[in-house]
Structure formats: structure tokens, C-alpha cells
Amino acid sequence: MSKKELAELIAGQFNLLKSQAGEIVDFAFDRIKENLVTGNEVAIAGFGKFFVSARAAREGRNPATSETIKIPASKAAKFKAAKQLKDALN
Fold first, then answer.
1. Segment 42-47 long-range contacts (CB within 8 Å, at least 24 positions apart)
2. Which UniProt key words apply to this protein (predicted)?
3. Per-domain residue ranges for the chain?
């Protein structure tokens, strides 16, 4: 499902214009992103938790040349599904 499809579903369900629903979807995703950027977790009851994970610097290998390269430390957004979501999937 894309953001556009989600906005269309919200617009149909709540009798909104597609543009209004799109703004709501964008607003929600922007708030999630802002919280992750500041290092906060975002927990949505019954759905799951978004959090930031730190990746340490490490050495890797260029597959084309077999040359050893340094991969810098980085951060990544991760998601852990809530029990209710896991149960619904299984």
C-alpha cells in the first residue's frame, strides 16, 4: 500500500477530500520521522514500535575489486511488530 492509497482509504472512510487525507497522512509520517531523528521511539499500541538503531563502523570488501574498505558508523530506523500484529499475521 502506498501513501496515496492510504490517503484515498482515509478520504473514503471519513468523507474527506483526498488532498485533506493526504495532508493527514503526511502529518503523521512527518511526526514519526521527527521523533526518530531526535532519537525518540514511536510506539503505536497494537501495531508496533519504531526506533533508531546505531550501526558501528566496520570494514567491508568491495566485491568488484576485493579491496578492503571502511564502512562508516550510521543509524538506521527499525520496526518491531507488536504482539497483536504478530498474532494477526499468524
1. 44/82, 45/82, 46/82, 46/84, 46/85, 47/81, 47/82, 47/84, 47/85
2. DNA condensation, DNA-binding
3. 1-40, 41-89
23 φ/ψ angles, rounded to the nearest 5 degrees? -65, -40
State how beta strands 58-61 and 74-81 pair. Answer: unpaired
CA–CA gap between residue 16 and residue 64 (Å, rounded): 52
pLDDT digits (tens, 9 = 90+) for 47-62: 999 999 999 999 999 9
| 8 Å CB contact between 41 and 51 | yes
What single DSSP character describes residue 72? Answer: P
Amino acid 48: pLDDT: 97
Instruction: Give yes or no for a contact between 82 and 46, defined as CB atoms under 8 angstroms apart.
Output: yes
